[in-house]
Design a protein that fits this description.
Strand order of the largest sheet: 2-1-3-4
Order of helices and strands: HHHHHHEHEEEH
Strand content: 5-15%
Largest sheet: 4 strands, mixed
Radius of gyration: 20 Å
Structural class: alpha+beta
Number of domains: 2
CATH superfamily of the largest domain: N-terminal domain of the delta subunit of the F1F0-ATP synthase
CATH topology of the largest domain: Peroxidase, domain 1
Number of strands: 4
CATH class of the largest domain: Mainly Alpha
Length: 176
Amino acid sequence: MPSKASAKRYAQAVFEIALESDELDGWLEDLAGLVREMGSQEFADFVDAPQVSIERKTDLVRGALGDAIGPMAVNLLLVLASRGIASLLPNVAEEYQQFVDSHRGVERAEVVTAVQLDQKQLDEISSLLRGIAGKDVTVTDSVEPEILGGLIARIGDRVIDGSTRTRLQQMRKSLA
């Protein structure tokens, strides 16, 4: 089973290539396109099938993707396929995004709330998190009604839990 460390090594190699050729955004687009293709179970099964020769995979993958994906990104997919780890591609794309963000001084944050937030609320939260992180922050949000209220923010390895559920649990412990 391929590991997250393997994905990070491939992502780092891609990042270095993209940095040298000044194509960080092009690689982001190509990797996103490959991840979309790998979302098709048929395509993913074919690319990772050990019984299919690499020559056949190469012909069919190049034919299927055409000019939509850059040749270097297609080569990455084929390298992964030749090793039977093409399913690692979404992790490679995620790790690559982190390398690009770090290079650009951007921190990613995930905010979980009980209800959907509007753009103004997201902007306010982003501003607060920017102050905490000390750098630009890109916020992705998700809704989990079970937290009852408040929010949970994750920035890198830091977690800020201001959820009503957690506060109620803490109150229950202190009363018991």
